[in-house]
């Protein structure tokens, strides 16, 4: 599969938490950094996302927000 998104970060799944309809999948990308993706429970099942598997965090955003205290 080819993707237009250029921000593809390889890591290892460290946590999968299913909710009512949405799951949160955490991917450890090294250096103490973890990326969390919110995807459907159906996608988790279809992709067989389980702890320990390698996966990519694919980031395609049209906006970047900045916050300050």
From TrEMBL:
InterPro entries: Mo/tungstate-bd_C_term_dom, Mop_domain, Transp-assoc_OB_typ1. The keyword Disulfide bond does not apply. One of its GO terms (biological process) is molybdate ion transport. Keywords: Molybdenum. Pfam families: TOBE (PF03459). It comes from the Bacteria. This is Transporter. It comes from Pseudorhodoplanes sinuspersici.
């Amino acid at each position: 599969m080819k993707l237009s998104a250029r921000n593809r970060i390889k890591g290892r799944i460290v946590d999968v938490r299913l909710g009512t309809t949405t799951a949160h999948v955490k991917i450890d990308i090294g250096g103490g950094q973890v990326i969390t993706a919110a995807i459907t429970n159906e996608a988790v099942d279809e992709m067989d996302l389980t702890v320990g598997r390698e996966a990519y965090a694919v980031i395609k955003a049209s906006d970047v927000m900045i916050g300050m205290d």
